[in-house]
Design goal:
The structure is a single chain. By secondary structure, this protein is of the alpha+beta class. The chain has three domains: about 110 residues, Lipocalin, CATH 2.40.128; about 190 residues, no CATH class; about 160 residues, no CATH class. About 50% of the residues lie in helices and about 15% in strands. The protein has 23 helices and eight strands. It has a four-stranded antiparallel β-sheet. Strands 5-6-7-8 form a four-stranded antiparallel β-sheet, with no helix packed on it. The protein is elongated, with a radius of gyration of 31 Å.
């Protein structure tokens, strides 16, 4: 995005902050009638019993340089008499509103306007927003966040939760994390609105992921009381209306004992925007964290699940098998998830067994397809045991291969094996042996002699002409 678009977004957000500061909705009673006055940035409205009796619409926010606005309207009361409503509203530094009916003053109110309000004012706090969803539904049902409107517009497309942190490759100035440590330290020692505002605004300047390690390095050198750290980190979690502030709070909280906040961290981790940093806190600062991380890994998807796979360890057999059977489900295609699952699930050892279960065969088939996925790079070429695994999988396919999807997996292996000699020179130097390649080709050719695969694919295409698996099988037989 260009500088112009960034400035437009900042101006829009600043304007919205001011607009929320002046928004008022006043409700009064007059002889059983409901008198309402609604003040917005570009309009003022008087309603009586739900009907508009007076309204002033402004053409520009600059029209607020006019110090006061006056509205007058009439309505007929239950006694049949006409009653006059008068409202005077405005002011530069202070917001004044006077409401009269038939000359009788019903309200006279004055409020000091904050033209530079604290950045969390008039916005919904993110963590309480997530906690409310979880309390009502037992899970996070809405992946949108309250600050989406501050980040995304026609020039800034909405990103999948957690994806924005994958795009950060710019280093911040060395002075930035040092300054932030200084501000947060002052906030801990003297927690006032001014010190909290200074830290909060500084956090908003950069993405936490871009200075994560540098900040922690400096922060560990500061003399501090863990209770003070927790107090201010929790204050930020309660108040933060911007996602980067939530991440910052989780980062500093992770430097203390987080066992008392374990359940709260688990809940926050269920939103993929925060999975990585919440798991960092759980992993580093709670007991028996791996079981907690596994529970989270089974609930998150996409970039959040990738973060969970990074932290999760196969410390027992059940988890190791989960990496093979379910670990790759609902992850990001082309990501490192497949290699994580293959390595931590010990795919090479599992397939080396003489017999495997149908569930393991099904899961390892999905995992192999993910390793074969052609994104920016093909992970199968990075996998140390590629030759062994594909040789053993094709042998197991002779017993377990029973569906069209199973044979589709074999066609993708065949396509991978059918690469030019120059590519194979590199593979033979790293993760293949010639006899493994020959064995894979031989077994796939043997299985393909059964005509049922082509017949099933052709029949399926009659009702599903665009099915990728069926088309690949038909194309395999055309060669």
């Amino acid at each position: 995005m260009g500088l112009k678009e960034e400035l437009k977004r900042e101006m829009r957000n600043a304007t919205n902050d001011v607009a929320k500061e002046v928004e008022k909705h006043i409700v009064l009673d007059f002889d059983g009638h409901k008198i309402e006055f609604i003040n917005k940035m570009l309009e003022e409205t008087i309603l009586v019993d739900g009907e508009v009796i007076a309204q002033n619409v402004r053409q520009s926010i600059w029209s607020h340089i006019i110090p006061y606005s006056k509205l007058k309207g009439t309505f007929t009361g239950r006694d049949g008499k006409a009653h006059k409503v008068y409202v005077k509203v405005g002011g530069f530094i202070k917001f004044h509103v006077v409401i009269k009916v038939d000359g009788k003053k019903l309200l006279a109110e004055t409020q000091t306007l904050q033209l530079n309000p604290v950045p969390w004012n008039n916005k919904e706090a993110i963590v309480p927003y997530l906690e409310k969803q979880f309390a009502e539904h037992g899970k996070i049902i809405n992946k949108e966040l309250p600050d989406d409107g501050l980040l995304f517009d026609e020039n800034h497309p909405r990103l999948a939760p957690g994806f924005g942190d994958q795009l950060t490759d710019e280093l911040v100035l060395a002075s930035y994390p040092k300054k932030l440590v200084k501000l947060f330290t002052e906030q801990m020692k003297n927690p006032t609105e001014a010190t909290r505002k200074a830290t909060y605004e500084k956090i908003l300047e950069e993405k936490v992921i871009s200075y994560f390690q540098e900040f922690l390095g400096h922060f560990t050198e500061v003399e501090k009381d863990d209770k003070q750290v927790q107090q201010e980190a929790l204050w930020l979690l309660d108040q933060a209306a911007h996602r980067e502030v939530v991440k910052f709070a989780l980062m500093v909280l992770a430097t203390t004992d987080c066992e008392p906040f374990k359940e709260r961290l688990k809940l926050i981790a269920l939103h993929e925007e925060f999975t990585g940093v919440a798991l960092f806190a759980l992993f580093n600062a709670t007991e028996r964290a791996n079981a907690t991380i596994w529970d989270i890994a089974k609930q998150v998807t996409d970039w959040g699940k990738l973060e969970a796979l990074n932290f999760l360890e196969p410390d027992r057999e059940e988890i190791r098998l989960w990496f093979l059977t379910d670990g790759i489900d609902e992850t990001v295609p082309g990501s490192q998830a497949a290699l994580q699952c293959a390595d931590k699930g010990k795919l090479d050892i599992e397939l080396h067994e003489d017999t495997i279960s149908a569930e393991v065969f099904e899961g390892t088939g999905k995992l192999i397809l993910a390793l074969l996925y052609e994104g920016q790079y093909r992970q199968m070429d990075e996998y140390e045991y590629a030759g062994q695994v594909l040789m053993r999988f094709t042998k197991h396919a002779k017993r377990h291969g029973s569906t069209m999807l199973h044979f589709y997996t074999l066609t993708q292996i065949a396509a991978y094996v059918n690469e030019p000699e120059d590519i194979w020179e590199g593979r033979f130097d790293y993760n293949w042996k010639p006899h493994e390649k020959l064995a894979v080709e031989t077994v796939i050719e043997e299985i393909s002699r059964d005509p049922k695969w082509l017949e099933e694919a052709q029949a399926y295409l009659q009702d599903n002409p665009d099915n990728v698996s069926a088309l690949a099988i038909v194309n395999y037989y055309k060669k």
